[in-house]
Amino acid sequence: MTFVKISEQSSLYNDLEKKPVGEILRDINAEDHKVAEAVGRTIPRIEELVNKIVPRMKRGGRIFYMGAGTSGRIGVLDASEIPPTFGMDPGWVIGIIAGGDTALRNPVENAEDDKLQGWKDLEKFDINTNDTVIGIAASGTTPYVINALLECRRNGILTAAITSNPDAPICHAADIPIEMIVGPEYVTGSSRMKSGSGQKMICNMITTTVMIKMGRVKGNKMVNMQLSNAKLVDRGTRMVIDELGLPYDEAKRLLLMHGSVKRAVDAFNGVECND
């Protein structure tokens, strides 16, 4: 297959500046409808990846996201949502962006072109064969990410790649390439649009499914969520009520005493909690 940068092909729309606001919004929305379908076509690859991540994490492995620009920010965003949502230590899912944390808000010149820095950034975490590294690059050509994935493979570390271009160089650097083909962007080359949305959807699917399989969800509820504000304390209290049938005040007291819904319910039932 010949590598074609579909993500940088000309938009299907033209003269955008001449369109009324409503038409622009409807056109963008029409393009966004294509994203879920493109992500759906990648599910077999995502399933393969999750099935390999879970046993590694049960042995103490971690998930690393790596990317530059929008792709890097997507990885950092998903990683940052795991502790409050599932009560996991921040060290379990880690987002790394080319250029470091400065690049989260401001572009860092030439950071994505540094072939050696990606692996150096991973080495800071004492990366090992229980870990998984997921490279994210809409173009599929980011040197920072590609070389890091190649070094991971040389060291026996599971790798995956999320890209918007079929047969991109990053696909050949990863054990499990996830080719999410969303087509040309509404604004030509603006991968923060459909590509970014699809990347976040795939990251959501990976980490949510892994966390479910790691026992961080019961039924359909976030029983290990961090109680970081009044809204979540109230939500957690109602979960305890649903499980145990206690009055609101007693359920809230039990929740706050133990710090999570799961620990509160287990303590009430005399079950030893190992989380």
Can you characterise this structure?
This protein has 275 residues and is an alpha/beta fold. The chain has 2 domains: 6-213, Glucose-6-phosphate isomerase like protein, domain 1 (Rossmann fold); 218-275, no CATH class. It has 10 helices and 5 strands. It has helices spanning 21-40, 43-58, 69-86, 117-123, 143-154, 169-173, 194-213, 230-244, 248-258, 261-268, and strands at 63-67, 93-97, 132-136, 158-163, 176-179. The chain has a 5-stranded parallel sheet with strand order 2-1-3-4-5, sandwiched between helices. Helix 6 (169-173) links the parallel strand 4 (158-163) and strand 5. The longest helix is centred in the first third of the chain and has 20 residues, at 21-40. It is globular and about 60 Å long. The mean pLDDT is 96.
Principal-axes geometry comes out as globular
Question: How many domain units?
Answer: 2
Instruction: State the CATH topology of the largest domain.
Output: Rossmann fold
Terminal Cα span: 47 Å
Main attributes of the structure:
single chain; 275 residues; Rossmann fold; 5-stranded parallel β-sheet; 48% helix; globular
Summarize this structure briefly:
The protein is of the alpha/beta class and 275 residues long. It has helices spanning 21-40, 43-58, 69-86, 117-123, 143-154, 169-173, 194-213, 230-244, 248-258, 261-268, and strands spanning 63-67, 93-97, 132-136, 158-163, 176-179. It is 48% helix and 9% strand.
Helix and strand arrangement:
Layout: H1 21-40, H2 43-58, E1 63-67, H3 69-86, E2 93-97, H4 117-123, E3 132-136, H5 143-154, E4 158-163, H6 169-173, E5 176-179, H7 194-213, H8 230-244, H9 248-258, H10 261-268
Parallel strand pairs: 1-2, 1-3, 3-4, 4-5
Helix pairs in contact: 1-7, 2-7, 3-7, 4-5, 8-9, 8-10, 9-10
